[in-house]
Structure formats: structure tokens, C-alpha cells
Amino acid sequence: MTDSDDSRPRRRPRPQRVFDTSVPSPCISVCQVDPRTDRCIGCLRHVDEIRNWPILTAEQKRAILAELPLRK
């Protein structure tokens, strides 16, 4: 390594993303998506809800959980 390598600008560190884990996932390990509805037949969540679950707020997760009984 030469002195010229040390003069390169460094990348700014990315802010650490904090995931809310206070609301557990409704997953029951029956992961099959109905192609007609794009919903999992196990937990009844839409594929977008499953994908976004880690980044949703606790309020958003609770809203989805409240809707699941209506999807049966």
C-alpha cells in the first residue's frame, strides 16, 4: 500500500437501519403463495406484506394483523 492509497476519499458510513421486532410475524411456516391472489395460504399476507415486514413500523404490522381474520 502506498501513501497515495491513503488519500482516497472514504465512503460515508451508511446509517444503521433499526428494525422494529416488537410485533412478531404471523408466519406459521406454511409458505405457499396462491397465484390468483398473491397471498400466502399459511399466514394470509400478501407477498408485498411479507417482503416489507422487517421494515414496517409496529403500527403498520398491527394494522395488517388486524386484517388477517377478514381474509379467511
**Order of the strands making up the biggest sheet:** 1-2
Biggest β-sheet, characterized? 2 strands, antiparallel
- Overall pLDDT confidence: 91
- The amount of helix comes to 10-25%
Q: What is the CA-CA span between the terminal residues?
A: 63 Å
Unreliable stretches (pLDDT < 50, length at least 5) are none
Helix/strand order? EEHH
Helix vs. strand class? mainly alpha
Number of helices: 2
Question: How would you portray this structure in words?
Answer:
With 72 residues, the protein is mainly alpha-helical. Helices cover 22% and strands 6% of the residues. It has a domain at 26-72. It is built from two helices and two strands. A two-stranded antiparallel ribbon has the order 1-2. The longest helix has 10 residues, at 58-67. The relative contact order is 0.16.
